[in-house]
Structures are given as structure tokens and as C-alpha cells.
Amino acid sequence: MKFKFAVVIFLIGFLITLLGAWLKITHITFGPFNGNIALTIGTFIQGLGVLLIIIKILISKKFKDL
């Protein structure tokens, strides 16, 4: 797994969270997809991205030298 992959996962989660905040502010829904669902999904994806970044840092050879 590359570090870029984890960052991309985090940024996708950030964009979904941003979309969810906009949906909540404007009270727009797209069928069952509303601001609450977008915020929840975005937050979980961001958490996954952060977890992948932490794992990548911990298994890095340069980190082991510290």
C-alpha cells in the first residue's frame, strides 16, 4: 500500500463530509441520501484514511530508526 492511497482515501472522506455539511445547511435530500448519511459515511471514510496513514507510518523503515 502506498502512502498516496491512504491520503486519497482521507480526501474522499473529507469531500463526502463537506457535501454532507452542505446538504444539512441547505436541507436538500436526494432520495434516501441526506446530510446525516453523508456526514456519517464521510466521517467513517476519514477515520479509515487516518488509520491507514498511521499504519503506514508505523511500518515505515525510517520510523523504526527513531
Descriptive report:
It is a single chain. Helices cover 79% and strands 0% of the residues. With 66 residues, the chain is mainly α. Helix 1 (3-26) packs antiparallel against helix 2 (35-58). The longest helix is centred in the N-terminal third of the chain and has 24 residues, at 3-26. The chain starts with a helix and ends with a helix. The mean pLDDT is 91.
Number of strands: 0
How many angstroms separate the termini? 22 Å
Structural class: mainly alpha
Contiguous runs where pLDDT drops below 50 for at least 5 residues? none
- The shape, in one word, is rod-shaped
- Determine the strand fraction and express it as a percent band: under 5%
Number of helices: 3
- Percent in helix: over 70%
Largest sheet: none
What does the radius of gyration come to? 15 Å
Report the average pLDDT across residues. Answer: 91
Order of helices and strands: HHH
